[in-house]
Amino acid sequence: MIRTLIVDDSAFMRVAIRSMLANSPDIKIVGDACNGMEAVEKAGKLHPDIIIMDVNMPVMDGLTAAKTIMDTNPIPIIMFSTLTSEGSKEALEALHLGAIDFVKKSESHHEVNQVESELIDKIRSINRSNPHILRLMNMRKFKGEVVRRNWKCSGDFGILIGSSTGGPSSLEQVIPRLPGDLPAAVFVVQHMPEGNFCGQLAERLNFLSELEVKEAINNEKIKNGVVYLAPGGYHMQVRKALDVTRIKVIKGQPVHAVMPAIDVTAESMLNVYGKNIVATILTGMGIDGASGLKMIKEGGGFTIACSEDTCVIFGMPKAAIENEAIDIVKPLFQIPEEIVSRLGVKCNGERYGSL
Hints:
14 strands, five-stranded parallel β-sheet
């Protein structure tokens, strides 16, 4: 039984969430709270397995409550947020403070069923995920050194990073440690719905990194040393014509029930970069990336999966491993070194490990 605490200042929303979860026999609502201060108190008394938390509340907001709970009585938290510009910024800050994921509040009756399904899936997935998940989230402030290398590259090279639940915090452990003179373009596919979140995430990673990090724009010319983040709710492809490589941002159909999808970007990269690809999957639910990374591996590229003991949600890395799509499994905190080393092998013609 997954003991769940609901926190929202809206009585209507508390009832709505209860209704969403009522038909799930494995989820038990142990209580609710109308502000962050009450949430902190009830978290300590009721010991829920998961907390569903609103962001904007009186007395104590969701950000302060999330930080307090993670600092004093760590419990997995799912933020329940709108994805307006301000809402996206707050949701991202909540993830930085220790919340594991967020679900977009429905803006119409047509979205209720989708929100219900997403919320239930995330509650179940987080509950059965890595037993060290809270320790991992509290290690989010770890900052390693930037990985340096002397480059002697010729040709075009691409790096692919795929992530979902737990991805924003994991990306903060990887992107800022890649060097600013990286002789490759980096493509990041983070599962997110349409909205402002990915733009806010790009701004945050750009502030933390030597590399330029930006949300991808349709038809823009691709440059080395730039990290392109797929916009939420759109697939991102890489295409080359007349010796110019550009990004295509496409409003297509979901793949594996997600958009953007790692597999879509992976297949397009293979057509442009061939064997000159290093690809990694960090964390997330489902099977996205398993097919795309297998194609990259079979095409001569190199593929990396995050190890289970340092992965927030092992679903996607596990699926890729089971699909024989992965060359090597590494702890999250070693993945930047692995990316740089393997890129060096490909573009410098060096032996693996010669940093």
